[in-house]
Amino acid sequence: MKPEVIVSGQHTDGRVSWEVDYRRLLLTIRLQGGVTDNDLSDGIPRIWQRHPEVLDCSTLVDARHLTSDGNYGWRGLRDVSREWKRFAMGRDVGSRTAIVLRDSLLAKLVRAVSFDYPGTVFRIFFTVDDAEDWLAMK
């Protein structure tokens, strides 16, 4: 059975939500409001569990509406990294991840975390359009 063209879901009152566009092979993850380490640790891997075919997708993380209210930090980001490695098992070589931020200070955190994904090319953007253009150049 072929999946719908676009599927979506959310975790924790919508602080973590996602959309998988199978036509464009694009996973979009939206982080908004006061995301916590637990939101990251539980919510992000749940996407891969429900939709294992995202391994073939590029990823766009839209964090423009993320706030510091949830006090997310290294633990949540490292948990996601560890779970991704377990899921991908090295099959993510050459994949692309675009992260859209509105805060340049978060860019440093993203750059530090990107080293946990040696097979993936990370880029930081400040508009979704620029991120989607880069992902489409694959």
Shape: globular
Q: Helical amount among residues, as a percent range?
A: 25-40%
End-to-end C-alpha gap: 27 Å
How are the strands of the biggest sheet laid out side by side?
1-2-3-4-5-6
Mean pLDDT rating: 88
Q: Summarize the biggest pleated sheet.
A: 6 strands, mixed
Note the total helix count.
Answer: 4
Low-confidence stretches: none
Strand count: 6
Q: What would you report as the Rg, rounded to the nearest angstrom?
A: 14 Å
Strand content: 25-35%
Helix and strand composition category: alpha/beta
The run of helices and strands is EEEHEHEHEH
Word description of this protein:
- The longest helix has 15 residues, at 74-88.
- A 6-stranded mixed sheet has the order 1-2-3-4-5-6, with helices on both faces.
- Helix content is 36%, strand content 30%.
- By secondary structure, it is of the alpha/beta class.
- It is globular, with a radius of gyration of 14 Å.
- The chain is built from 4 helices and 6 strands.
- α2 links the parallel β4 and β5.
What is the compact description of this entry?
By secondary structure, this protein is an alpha/beta fold.
